[in-house]
């Protein structure tokens, strides 16, 4: 078990290095930041001067070597646009994004787990149909549209919630709901379908035949097996949540990493885009490590040496 | 197909609703040029922002009204069905094929697993938006590039779920039994394991056609989608959201179109899943 | 089981509703307070940095102009006016002399004087500052004459140096504060001479400022000034309607039209110097190399109708690429008159009676306008394929000379001198040049090197006549600045589009 964890940690470092490499080359392929940084009036000399200052006049391989060397020393470079270390720019905004993503995840789980379980047990009833209809409709709308509709209703028409920005709870409700809606629907559906499958499987039937109480059957046997795909999806969806926060943050003027990434992409701010990717990748890798370890706990049939 | 229909619950209105909707939109997508009253990109600047026919101030000839450039919304939605459905289906085929093959192989072979899951991790760690931008910047914007982006970014989900299913199935009795009687690995993978995990693949694929259509609109919203002058539903919705307070019809109708199709695909997916999976009966 | 779950949902809803209602009360009290002495301005993007010498973009300048002052400013008639400097004159071809105000102190109490000017411009031009501001690179040396007199010595003559001190490069920073606290601290806690003092900055959310009671022109009327960042226009419209935002900026004509219907909001449309045109690449073989074709294109587009429809009337037709407020504009030069017959005739003369096919690049945001232009060109047989892309890709393509033969560009010559409008475009060796003309090159040299206004005006006139005749652009319009303001707010925007809030007040 210990060696398994160790191996996974080494993998994680390998993955991060891979991410960093791909990020570096993609960022370099997307264009010249100097042309965007300087006003149209700038002369060719001014452009070359700035390019040299930024080290962008050197061959790509040399730039890559410098990049990896700095990375190993936790020197993630300075943002071209902001003139500050990229690491601090991102860590400044990370709490806002984590707050939003965390709130979405909680809302999604709070609604989806009971809804999924009840729908599976009460399959075919009015409750099941209602839940499934709501879930399906929720999943059929793009986040930004949901967001705009929420703002139109709750802010402009009813004046209940602020239109955007960060602040107290009232600022968090709409963006968290909009961002969590898809995940909510996904988990509800997945939990329902895998629970239905588990409930109809042989060992559950056997358990039932043995006279075990339904709740115990569901709780101890069926639920445990149907959680496997759910945990997988939650792990994967945290990546989607962080990615989806880009759209949500733009719609609700939420000052997080997502909004900054969009600006960094528009400014061709290499260093900032790279650091953002590597940091988000770090979060992702850790979460997936946890997911993989959870498999061992949930499904004892999978064994790791 | 007929046997599948016979097996299904014919009385379920939801399922028939979804089939009718999808067939309808498929037909619309094919015959859009013949039934559209206008060229979807033809502008009539004197008839801008006109409401649908049943509302005061409408202009005759524009059933669903016009957008901010005086283009006929109905024609644009009819044409848009081609683009949005095409994007959804093609992207899912790309990612489904990649994901299924990689997932099966890595669930089955340790060595493949080690490499592929690392690549999957790298892939997953990338925000889709960045990949989209990179491809647009390198290859130039365009619909095929967007389809490739959405296809490439989607494979991991299949691979991961299939892999975990294969992992837990590998120790199941029937696979162990098949092995002991000398069934080859390839045969085992594609003849015995693949049919058994078709249900999760279909579940994911339906979700993904749906989520791809939605992802297309989100990328449009961020200005990184299909070129903005192509009338995809996503483009129409994201341009129309600016007018939501006054000319609500510009975003409402494409929004409803997206909702209907996505909804129908999801219902259909559930249904097929139930039909294929005798256990859930 | 069912009842338990129902109870659970009920609790969740009650909690949510509770938060909502309690906070909505807070909002209403906050807004009634706000109306008395504080103002919220919204723009689409945040400042990149609050170090005024390390920024070069309008969103940054909009915030900073409220905390800092510049050497010179513009008055209501857009004439150069005193700022931190009271007088300015050219004492020879390469020296501009500025006399400074004597009663100005930075927010930290540090005095403003000639040394501060020298420090500011030296810091600006020091390569270590990595400033994106390039306008004052012509300054070779700053010479302190006495405590309140300073000479700016340029390497070659710079006729519009005073104009350049109105924004970006003209911002004055506190020498001792920066020396003591360092650049990083200064960027986080900016100190200027301006009407508002820095309070806090939450990045991508808001910058909060408070009134500077000791401001040399007198304390501003509002006690508190907040700049909010709202990237999505639909959200900005919503926030303006609910009163969370007092002044919404960077509005598009369509969005402004929506706000007009709201009884609490005034929509202000005001002249702005942002000028747009379609660049025609004349350097490649093909129809665009012919002057008749380019003239035909100018005749073929009904710019007036496009302004009235797509832009809701919020733009002014311009003859060339110089906005009507800028120095050097020749008002006797009239714009092309829409004439489809003449366009067809010219095309036939050039050997393209049936038109031709070409491509056009543009920013996604300009989709409506370029599609309308393409449709107009289509009517004379010029079939245009429109390629839309994000702004950065477009800029990249133009810089890399990979753009299509037609591309849509805007230019804000904020120095308000035609020199800036022509700078990167007209002369053959410039970055965005797509038209080689020896006569134009000579004329550009004259207007860039002479400091005599009459000589310059004459050269500008000749360039504009040449532009009309040669038509290396499809000339369009200058946009109006559009703002959505709460009914009780009083504020007058300026033609440069800078959000200077010193004079803003509540009725």
Overview of the structural elements:
Chain A is mainly α. Chain A has helices at residues 2-29, 33-37, 44-53, 60-72, 86-121, 126-139, 143-157, 169-199, 202-209, 214-251, 257-266, 270-298. In chain A, helix 5 packs parallel to helix 12 and helix 7 (143-157) packs across helix 10 (214-251). The longest helix of chain A has 38 residues, at 214-251. Chain B has 281 residues and is an all-alpha fold. Chain B has one domain: Orthogonal Bundle (MetI-like fold), CATH 1.10.3720. In chain B, 72% of the residues lie in helices and 0% in strands. Chain B has eleven helices and no strands. Chain B has helices spanning 2-7, 13-35, 73-108, 110-125, 128-139, 143-170, 173-180, 185-196, 198-221, 233-240, 249-276. Chain B is elongated. The two termini of chain B are 18 Å apart. The relative contact order of chain B is 0.14. With 507 residues, chain C is an alpha+beta fold. Among the domains of chain C are: 68-193, Alpha-Beta Complex (Dipeptide-binding Protein, domain 1); 271-480, Dipeptide-binding Protein, domain 3. Helix content of chain C is 34%, strand content 24%. Chain C has 16 helices and 19 strands. Chain C has helices at 2-37, 58-64, 114-125, 161-164, 175-181, 183-188, 233-241, 253-260, 291-300, 303-309, 340-349, 367-378, 391-399, 418-422, 438-449, 453-470; strands at 38-43, 72-74, 80-82, 85-92, 95-100, 139-146, 149-154, 196-202, 206-211, 224-229, 247-248, 265-280, 315-317, 356-363, 382-389, 406-412, 473-486, 489-490, 505-506. In chain C, the strands form four sheets. In chain C, strands 1, 8, 9, 10, 11, 12, 13, 14, 15, 16 and 17 form an eleven-stranded mixed sheet that branches. Chain C starts with a helix and ends with a strand. Mean pLDDT of chain C is 90; it is low at 1-34. Chains in contact: A-B, A-C, B-C.
Largest sheet entry of chain B: none
The proportion of residues forming helix of chain A, as a percent range, comes to over 70%
What is the CA-based Rg of chain B, rounded? 22 Å
**Distance from first to last alpha carbon of chain A:** 6 Å
Tell me about the biggest sheet of chain A?
A: none
């Amino acid at each position: 078990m210990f060696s398994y964890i160790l191996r996974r940690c080494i993998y994680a470092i390998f993955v991060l290095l891979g991410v960093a490499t791909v990020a570096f080359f993609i960022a370099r392929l997307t264009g010249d930041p100097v042309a965007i940084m300087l006003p149209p009036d700038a002369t060719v000399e001014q452009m070359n001067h700035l390019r040299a200052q930024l080290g962008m006049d050197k061959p790509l391989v040399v730039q890559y070597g410098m990049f990896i060397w700095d990375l190993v020393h936790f020197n993630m470079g300075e943002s071209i646009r902001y003139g500050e270390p990229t690491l601090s720019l991102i860590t400044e905004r990370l709490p806002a994004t984590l707050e939003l993503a965390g709130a979405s995840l909680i809302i999604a789980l709070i609604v989806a787990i009971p809804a999924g379980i009840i729908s599976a047990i009460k399959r075919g009833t009015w409750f099941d149909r209602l839940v499934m209809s709501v879930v399906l409709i929720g999943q059929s709308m793009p986040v930004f549209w949901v967001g705009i509709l929420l703002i139109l209703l709750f802010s402009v028409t009813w004046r209940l919630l602020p239109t955007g920005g960060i602040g107290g709870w009232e600022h968090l409700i709409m963006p968290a709901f909009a961002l969590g809606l898809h995940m909510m629907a996904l988990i509800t559906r997945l939990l329902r379908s895998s629970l239905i499958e588990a409930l109809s499987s042989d060992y559950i039937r056997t358990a039932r035949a043995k006279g075990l109480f339904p709740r115990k059957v569901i709780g101890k046997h069926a639920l445990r097996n149907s959680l496997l795909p759910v945990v997988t999806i939650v792990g994967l969806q945290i990546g989607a949540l962080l990615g989806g926060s880009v759209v949500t943050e733009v719609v609700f003027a939420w000052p997080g990493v997502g909004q900054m990434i969009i600006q960094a992409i528009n400014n061709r701010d290499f260093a900032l885009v790279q650091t953002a990717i590597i940091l988000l990748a770090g979060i992702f890798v850790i979460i997936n490590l946890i997911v993989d370890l959870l498999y061992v706990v949930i499904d004892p049939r999978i064994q790791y040496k | 197909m007929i046997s599948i229909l016979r097996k299904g619950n014919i009385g379920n209105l939801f399922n028939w609703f979804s089939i009718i909707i999808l067939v309808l939109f498929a037909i619309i997508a094919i015959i859009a040029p013949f039934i559209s009253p206008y060229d979807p990109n033809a502008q009539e600047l004197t008839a801008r922002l006109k409401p649908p026919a049943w509302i005061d101030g409408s202009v005759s000839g524009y059933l669903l009204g016009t957008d901010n450039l005086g283009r006929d919304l109905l024609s644009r939605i009819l044409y848009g069905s081609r683009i949005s459905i095409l994007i959804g289906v093609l992207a899912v085929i790309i990612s489904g094929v990649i994901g299924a093959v990689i997932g099966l192989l890595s669930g089955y072979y340790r060595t493949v697993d080690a490499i592929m899951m690392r690549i999957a991790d790298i892939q997953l760690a990338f925000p889709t938006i960045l990949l989209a931008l990179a491809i647009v910047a390198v290859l130039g914007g365009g619909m095929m590039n967007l389809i490739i982006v959405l296809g490439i970014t989607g494979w991991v989900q299949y691979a991961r779920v299939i892999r975990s299913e294969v992992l837990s199935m590998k120790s199941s009795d029937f696979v162990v039994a098949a092995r002991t009687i000398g069934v080859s690995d390839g045969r085992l993978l594609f003849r015995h394991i693949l049919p058994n995990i078709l249900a999760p693949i279909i579940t994911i694929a339906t979700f993904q056609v749906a989520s791809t259509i939605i992802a297309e609109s989100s990328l449009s919203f961020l200005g990184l989608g299909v070129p903005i002058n192509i009338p995809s539903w996503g483009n129409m919705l994201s341009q129309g959201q600016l007018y939501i307070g006054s000319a609500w019809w510009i975003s409402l109708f494409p929004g409803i179109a997206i909702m209907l199709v996505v909804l129908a695909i999801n219902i259909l997916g559930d249904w097929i899943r139930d039909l294929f999976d005798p256990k859930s009966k | 089981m069912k009842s338990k779950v129902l109870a659970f949902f009920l609790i969740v809803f009650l909690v949510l509703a509770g938060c909502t209602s309690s906070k909505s009360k807070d909002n209403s009290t906050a807004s009634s307070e706000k109306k008395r002495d504080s103002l919220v301005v919204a723009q689409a993007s945040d400042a990149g940095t609050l170090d005024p010498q390390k920024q070069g973009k309008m969103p940054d300048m909009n915030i900073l102009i409220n905390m800092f002052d510049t050497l010179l400013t513009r008055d209501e008639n857009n004439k150069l006016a005193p700022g931190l400097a009271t007088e300015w004159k050219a004492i020879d071809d390469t020296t501009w002399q500025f006399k400074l105000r004597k009663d100005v102190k930075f927010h930290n109490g540090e005095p403003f004087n000639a040394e501060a000017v020298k420090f500011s411009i030296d810091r600006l031009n020091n390569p270590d500052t990595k400033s994106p501001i390039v306008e004052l690179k012509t300054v070779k040396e700053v010479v302190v004459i006495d405590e309140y007199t300073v000479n700016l010595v340029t390497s070659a003559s710079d006729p519009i140096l005073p104009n350049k001190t109105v924004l970006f490069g003209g911002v004055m920073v506190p020498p001792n504060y920066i020396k003591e606290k360092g650049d990083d601290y200064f960027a986080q806690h900016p100190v200027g001479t301006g009407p508002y003092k820095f309070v806090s900055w939450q990045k991508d959310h808001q910058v909060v400022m408070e009134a500077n009671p000791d401001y040399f022109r007198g304390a501003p009327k509002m006690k508190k000034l907040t700049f909010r960042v709202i990237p999505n226009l639909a959200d900005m419209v919503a926030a303006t309607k609910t009163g969370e935002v007092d002044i919404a900026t960077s509005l598009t004509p369509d969005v402004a039209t929506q706000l007009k219907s709201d009884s609490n909001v005034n929509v202000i449309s005001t002249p702005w110097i942002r000028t747009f045109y379609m660049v025609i690449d004349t350097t490649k073989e093909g129809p665009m190399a012919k002057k008749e074709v380019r003239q035909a294109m100018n005749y073929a587009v009904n710019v007036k109708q496009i302004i009235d429809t797509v832009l809701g009337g919020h733009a002014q037709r311009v003859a060339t690429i110089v906005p009507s407020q800028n120095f050097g504009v020749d008002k006797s030069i009239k714009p092309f008159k829409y004439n489809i017959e003449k366009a067809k005739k010219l095309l036939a003369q050039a050997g393209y009676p049936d038109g031709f096919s070409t491509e056009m690049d543009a920013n996604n945001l300009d989709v409506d306008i370029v599609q309308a232009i393409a449709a107009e060109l289509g009517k004379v047989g010029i079939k245009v394929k429109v390629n839309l892309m994000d702004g950065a890709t477009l800029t990249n393509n133009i810089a890399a000379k990979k753009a299509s033969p037609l591309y849509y560009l805007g230019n804000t010559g904020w120095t308000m001198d035609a020199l800036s409008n022509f700078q990167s475009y007209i002369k053959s060796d410039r970055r965005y040049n797509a038209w080689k003309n020896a006569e134009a090159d000579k004329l550009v040299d004259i207007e860039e090197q002479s400091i005599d206004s009459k000589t310059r005006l004459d050269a500008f006139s000749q360039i504009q006549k040449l532009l009309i005749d040669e038509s290396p652009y499809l000339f369009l319009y200058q946009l109006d600045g559009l703002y959505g303001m709460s009914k009780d707010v009083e504020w007058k925007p300026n033609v440069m589009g800078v959000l200077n809030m010193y004079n803003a007040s509540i009725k």
